[in-house]
Specification:
There is one protein chain. The chain is of the alpha/beta class. The protein is built from eleven helices and 20 strands. Helix 2 crosses helix 6 and helix 3 crosses helix 4. The protein is globular. It binds guanosine-5'-diphosphate, 6-O-phosphoryl inosine monophosphate (IMO) and magnesium ion. Homodimer.
Amino acid sequence: MAVDILIGLQWGDEGKGKIVDVLAPTYDIVARFQGGPNAGHTLEFEGTKHVLHQIPSGIFHAHIQNVIGNGVVLDPIVFRTEMQKLQDRGVDATQNLFISKKASLILPSHKILDRVSEEALGSGKIGSTLKGIGPTYQDKIGRVGMRIGDILADDFQDRYNKLVERHRKTVEFYGQSLDLGEQEQAFFEAVDYLRTLKLVDSEYMINEALKNGKRVLAEGAQGSLLDVDFGTYPFVTSSTTLVAGACTGLGVAPRHIGEVYGIFKAYCTRVGSGPFPTELLDEVGDQIRKAGNEFGSTTGRPRRCGWVDLPSLKYSIMLNGVTQLNMMKADVLTEFDTIKVCTHYKLVSGEITDQLPHSIDTGDIEPIYEELPGWKVELNQIESVDALPEAFNNYMSFLEEHLQVPITIASVGPDRKSTLRRERARIS
Ligand code: GDP
Ligand code: IMO
Ligand code: MG
């Protein structure tokens, strides 16, 4: 069987957790392949909201194997808290969670490096989640990092000490001192806990499963516009957030890739710094933030809000080979009489384009909008696509025509149940 992959097409927080949870029952394995505790994936069902950071969103189904792949950077302290929260809610994840021995370890000193590096950037800061993501991936690529498998080695403590010494020097270079405080003890306790779990060679596990006809869903974190190569560099995260990242982050060959679900909001949001061509800095932006409860699942920061941006969606669809689209949070736009869609950009040269320029400095791009009638109907009680208002169907058809990919899921509320499946439309 193939590996299907779900990828965020914008700047993250598209609703990946919700849709992975909805799709999960038809899969045998759900796997995370990149990112780490910078992610915050929200799931809502039976009146309860859950936020996952490192644990895959298939964890609430006991029969599904959940894998933290080699491409992930894992913080043992955050992980332990996540496991405890699940336990408190009656979910024992110890039997259906598998962690790659090749996943990278986030040390307490990585988090300090993240903060120190952001402080040094001053007004040019990335707006990192300060979870240690950048420094941990730097160590991985620099070939000095530590991996989950190392916690089983006799010289684990030695290797840890050596790496922390490196970090100490870097922190001192920035004119600060490395004070790990209670974090170090919490780290070692969490590592002890990790040793009791299923630490595996997940590349073998997943490839065996595929050979045996099992279905695998890979759960992306962040979004395509935060990809380290193709995102709005340098205001990106430090991993490959695209479909290609699932190959290296799980050890799956490209020929095994099946469906690619591209997930996006009916509008657009971003947390942290960096360009955002359709950002609304006015009361309309505030209205969307309020209606959509657009505050970060990981850091609680208010999310920047704007209209949907088709040039950037086309770009993400191209890079990922998206086969079906999932449109999220359309219910949030119910209050608007008209809804704007950015179809093209006007560049300073006067050129009109639907492609992303090499560097998208928001000041240099003027979004060109088409305005569509709003639907003005509460969507979250609607249970069938046949009951959807015409204006809403027209909105989806408009997007499908521009993007040339069918919208197969329309999400109209945070709950698992507020999910409408659509036939693959024939796109003209
Ligand atoms: P992720 O990081 O892509 O998993 O997304 P987040 O969980 O960070 O952010 C999505 C937010 O929108 C969460 O609070 C979800 O509960 C919520 N959400 C998801 N789908 C819908 C929807 O269709 N309508 C509304 N109103 N909220 C939704
Ligand atoms: P999910 O999986 C939204 C953003 C940060 C910052 C930039 C770099 O929930 O969609 P990092 O901590 O990775 O070094 O921060 O990336 N960012 C996210 N924004 N959703 C996320 O994850 C994000 N993970 C990182 O805000 O701008
Ligand atoms: Mg999120």
